[in-house]
Design a protein that fits this description.
The protein has 14 helices and 16 strands. It is an alpha+beta fold and 460 residues long.
Amino acid sequence: MTAASAPISYACHIAVGHPEQARLLLLPDESGWRLPTFSEGARHFWQEIGHVNGWLRESLGAPATTLRCLAIAYSPDDERVSKVYAAVLRDPSWALPAGARWATREDLASLPLAVEDHRAPIADWFAWYAGSAAPRQRPPWYMPGWLDVATAWATDALVRAGLAPTGPAEQLRSWQRSAILRLPTAVGGAYLKAVPPMFGHEPALTAALAATDPARFARPIAIDRERGWLLMRELPGPTLETRRAAEDVGLWQAAVAAFAEVQIASTARLSQLRAIGVPERPLGTLAARLTPLLTDMAATLTDSPAGLSAEARVNLRAMAPYLRAMTDELAAYGLPAALEHGDFWAGQVVVNQAGFGFLDWADSSIAHPFFSLVLFLVEIEDFFPHVPGVRERLRDAYLEPWASVAPGTNLTRAFELAQPLAALHHALTYHAIVLPNMEVKWELDLMLPFYLKMALRLAA
C-alpha cells in the first residue's frame, strides 16, 4: 500500500480534570508531558464519547465523565485525525499512574509538552472548567455534575415504570445539540436524550407521534419538558444506512414511502403540533426570512476553506430577487404544510419487523413537506453509486403516496422546485436558530455554507 492510499488514522487525546481542583492530568513522555492518548480502532464521530470513557476505565482505571470534544485537527502529511476531549474524573481518591501529575494552569506555562499543539485546547479546558460563569448558551451536560443528576432522574423513572436498570448508564454522545445516555434494562435499552431550548419541542412531539403510531416512533417512558429531557424505549433494529447493497434499493423506496405516509397523517394534526411547540416556518414567509441570510456574507465563512467562493456569493445574492417567484410557484401546487423532519438521512430510519421507525425530531418544524428529503437524496448516489437512476426511483416512491393528496398535480415538478428552497430552508434554520444559540460555533458552523452550496447546485 502506498502512502497516498494509506487509510486515515484516528487519535484521541483526553484532557482529564480533577473533580475538586482546577488541575489537569498529565502523563510523562520522553519529550515532555502529554495528555492521556489512544488510537481509535474504528472511526467514531467526534460527538461520540462512549469509547473515550471506556478507554479511560480500561487503560487507566479512571472513572470519568466525558463532557465534550475540545478540538479536532487533521494532518494531511500522515493522514491523521486528532481529537481532544474534555473529561472530569468522578472519584477524587483515584490513584495517579506512576510518574503522572495534576497540573495547574500556572504549571502549564513552564512545562514542556510532547504535543505543542495541545496548548490551545488545554487553555480552552482551563477557561471552560476553571474560569468564569458559564454563558447562557452552554448546555448543562457540558458541565461536571450533570450526568449524576440526569442518571438519577432516569433511574427513578425506570424504576417507577417497572424497568429497573440492570447496569450503569453509558454516555453515548455529547455535543451542543444533545446528550444521549443508554441505560440497560431486562427488556432492552432505554435512552435518555437531553436537548437545548431551541429543540425543546422534541420530547412532546416524540410522545405525540408514538401515541398515534408506537411501531414507528420511540415510546417515551418519562419527559421533563422544562429541562428538555426525553427518556424513551429503544426502537430496535438496524438503521437504513447499513442496507446499501443494490438489491436493497427497494427497501429504501419503501422507507421513503412510509415517511411520506407519516407526513400526510400529520397534515390533519397541525393544531396539535402547534400546541406542543413545534415551530412553524411557512413557505409564504421563506423569501422574506431569507433576505438577511443572503445579504450576510459573514455567515458564509469566507475565511474558511469550507466557505463560499466569491463567485458563489455573487450567485447567492442573484437568487434573492427570484425567491418570491419560486415560493409562489411552489405554493400554487396546493400541497399542505406538514411535519418536516429537518435532518432526515438514512441513519434516522430504523428497519424492523413492523416496517420502519423514524428517529430524532429535534430539527422538525411545520413547513413544506418536500423540504425533508433534500439531504437524503443528495447523498443517495454515494450510497448506491452503481444503481442507475436511484435518486429518481426514491423520489418517485416518496411521491406516490402524495398522489392521493393532490390528484392530477405535477408532483415531480413541485418536488424538484422545492429542492433548492429546501436547502435554503435548512440553511436559514442554522443561521437564525441553531448557531445564535451555540457557544462553540465550530461544532456546526460548516452546516450553513454546506446548505448554501447545495442550494446553488440544485438551482443550477
